[in-house]
Design goal:
homodimer; 291 residues; mainly alpha; Farnesyl Diphosphate Synthase; two-stranded antiparallel ribbon; 14 helices; globular
């Protein structure tokens, strides 16, 4: 399975490299900044989930590739904007200086804007998909990324900073800031793979549980991992007064909840007989990761 | 015609008000910020152009309403981000304090992100349009708004600031920063109205000329109008060392070019027998405006 992920990561990286505007196309600095952040690597978790979901519903992974990579662009844009001084003010991302540290704030802002915009272009022109599938891909991604999805989660996260730990707020932040785009990755794979409504609903349910498990693990790692393993500044969330699962439930409580959501994810996989697919392996990977 | 514009502006404002997330929906401050900037008014030039283009190709204006309003969201997001301290650092917009002055930088950034995202959701779910039209609307808007469109123009504008006046740079900035979205408005109207390829190409040609005329007039007004008429700080572009048409060609030269592009726009209208449509009246309005 690990080999398959490596192969698919190479396919994803090749697609991104080929379809991002060339670094030399004007305005060159903008395209460099976009490429700097997208090609910095990272786990490519969201596109991997999209490809695996596509295969799980019986589609060929290649059909989901444009949508998978579009969602990676959305994820990358959100990191660039999140790292800006007026937001989390972070210097390190994926083990390298953040986009605005290298290109300045204005260009980082605009590179994020351009990546978000480009994502919708890829979704709306995904080859091997019908127009109906393409329009649906745009709708699913836009809902997940918008004011009642990822951006809404970011706002709630900012608003919760420095406030008393609160269970309900935490659930809102976890569900929307991280969960919605993970769910959309799975749905997008299902849509591109021409899955049934039942399959796509199961993928959404799986995404919800995986998204929560992922975020719990993230909060735990922020407390327990070192910078080298993590590729970003650890302990920063806690130091910044961020609302984290550890703040609300303690380290053990957060671990228990991560385990519970992992179990719920596996229950969805089992009900659909997806345990032994790439999707099952990815679910394992998400919940057992150390960085 | 003036009455028709007023009626259509009311229709546009009503659509925006009804379809933006309610201000009370969480996160409420985000939705307030989005509404603050979108409902601040402005000329609604881009949606008016979309509706007029739709009628010019024989469609009912209502068919183009979602796409028209989506483009207004894109325009509004670009203004919010443009006004941020790391960009133009502007305090006044449409006669009111800018979004970040009222809601802070982080929320303004995210309100812009959310508006851009919502725009694609509206384009991809435009009622009365087929899936093929909806996917095409997304593609046209994304291309016009992206790194080789509006955002590219903004980067070129930033890079040109403080540099010697340069004709080629100016053309790039004018074409992409303002022109591309005006062109996309007309194309979107043509697509929603089920225009022929020839009609949509003519709308694009018209958009190019109108966009340039619009930007020349804008540069001229920055030099000649007062704050009350303009609804934003006049003379600011020149003071900030921005590349403007007046800097490159002088006031008279800029006026001559505005007139030439206006004439070219009218030639397109005439060739299609569109002079006496709403589109013709809008072209007149764009090129003769004083604010």
């Amino acid at each position: 399975m690990k080999d398959t992920f490596s192969t698919q990561r190479r396919t994803i990286d090749a697609y991104l490299d080929q379809h991002l505007p060339p670094a030399a196309a004007p305005p060159a600095r903008l395209h460099e900044a976009m490429r700097y952040s997208v090609m910095a690597g990272g786990k490519r978790l969201r596109p991997l989930l999209a490809l695996a979901a596509c295969e799980a519903v019986g589609g060929a992974a290649a059909v989901a590739l444009p949508a998978a990579c579009a969602i990676e662009l959305i994820h990358t844009y959100s990191l660039i904007h999140d790292d800006l001084p007026c937001m989390d003010d972070d210097d390190l991302r994926r083990g390298r200086p953040t986009c605005h540290k290298v290109y300045g704030e204005a260009l980082a802002l605009l590179a994020g804007d351009a990546l978000l915009t480009l994502a919708f272009s890829w979704l709306a022109s995904a080859h091997d998909c019908t127009a109906a599938q393409r329009a649906r891909l745009v709708c699913v991604a836009a809902r997940a990324a918008g004011s009642q999805g990822m951006v809404g989660g970011q706002v709630a996260d900012l608003e919760a900073t420095g406030q008393a730990p609160d269970e309900q707020r935490l659930a809102f932040v976890h569900t929307h800031k991280t969960g919605d785009l993970i769910t959309a990755s799975l749905q997008a794979g299902g849509i591109a793979g021409n899955g049934t409504d039942g399959q796509i609903a199961a993928l959404a349910a799986l995404g919800e549980q995986l998204g929560l498990a992922f975020q719990y693990v993230d909060d735990i790692l922020d407390c327990t991992a070192d910078a080298e393993t993590l590729g970003k500044t650890p302990g920063k969330d806690t130091a910044a007064g961020k609302l984290t699962a550890v703040a609300v439930y303690g380290l053990e409580g957060a671990r228990e909840r991560a385990t519970a959501h992992t179990a719920a994810a596996h229950a969805v996989l089992k009900a659909r007989n997806w345990q032994n697919t790439l999707l099952g392996a990815l679910a394992e990977y998400v919940t057992a990761r150390t960085s």
